[in-house]
Design goal:
Radius of gyration: 13 Å
Low-confidence stretches: 94-101
Strand content: 25-35%
Shape: globular
Structural class: alpha/beta
Number of helices: 2
Order of helices and strands: EHEEEHE
Number of domains: 1
Mean pLDDT: 79
Helix content: 10-25%
């Protein structure tokens, strides 16, 4: 199966949600599933500076990182269109719009 996790940050950023998503994603990969993560390029949620690379393969998990940008309606329409290719999506964010806003 193919899974998508959406989180405000992902390791190497430090935090409980980041660790939870990483552990869950890596376990699913070990069980033979394909896992993608959509997250921000921010290393921390205090500054939201885009310091991390746009793509990484971490322990079998494809991590796609996006710059934090102003809220735009089209961003969510594009994201919703792309979600049709996943069996299950899982969002773990303080606020759903924080990734792009």
């Amino acid at each position: 199966m193919r899974f998508l996790h959406i989180s405000h940050c992902y390791p190497p950023a430090i935090g409980g949600a980041e660790k939870y998503i990483a552990d869950l994603s890596e376990e699913l990969v070990q069980r033979g599933h394909e896992v993608d993560v959509f997250t921000s390029r921010a290393l921390d949620i205090d500054t939201w500076q885009n310091k991390l690379p746009p793509f990484e393969l971490l322990n079998g998990v494809k991590v796609y990182r996006f710059d934090s940008v102003r809220r735009r309606e089209w961003v969510w329409k594009v994201l919703h269109f792309g979600l049709r290719n996943y069996w299950r999506t899982h969002s773990r964010c303080y606020e759903p719009f924080i990734l792009f806003g």
